[in-house]
Amino acid sequence: MPTDVVGRFLAALGPQQQEAVTSRPQEEQERLAAAWERELASDDELDTLDELSPPAAEAEAARRVLDREG
Questions:
Q1: Fewest beta carbons less than 10 Å away: which of 2, 29, 30, 59?
Q2: To 5 degrees, how large is the angle CA 14–CA 17–CA 53?
Q3: What digits encode the pLDDT tens for the residues 17-27?
């Protein structure tokens, strides 16, 4: 399991999304990963989902970030 934020963000994405994000510059990947971390930390709905399934919460946060900022 990746320990850096970009690696964890990429792991939360599906294969097509991973490919789309990894084709971007490193700075953009870091910006998206930081937004993903903020989404995980700030959304109460994700807290509840995280208790049931942490990978599902991470994937949902990643989807939201890409929908909003990607």
A1: 2
A2: 35
A3: 999 999 999 99
- Helix, coil or strand: residue 43: coil
Interhelix angle 15-22/5-12, rounded to 10 degrees, is 140
Q: Measured between alpha carbons, how far is 4 from 24 in angstroms, rounded to an integer?
A: 17
Specify the pTM.
Answer: 0.85
State the residue for tokens 């903020």: 38
| HSE, side-chain direction, 13 A CA sphere, residue 1 | 4
What b-and-e string marks burial along 28-47, b requiring 16 or more CB atoms within 10 Å of the CB?
Answer: ebeebbebbeebbeebeebe
- The Cα 30–Cα 56 span in angstroms is 21
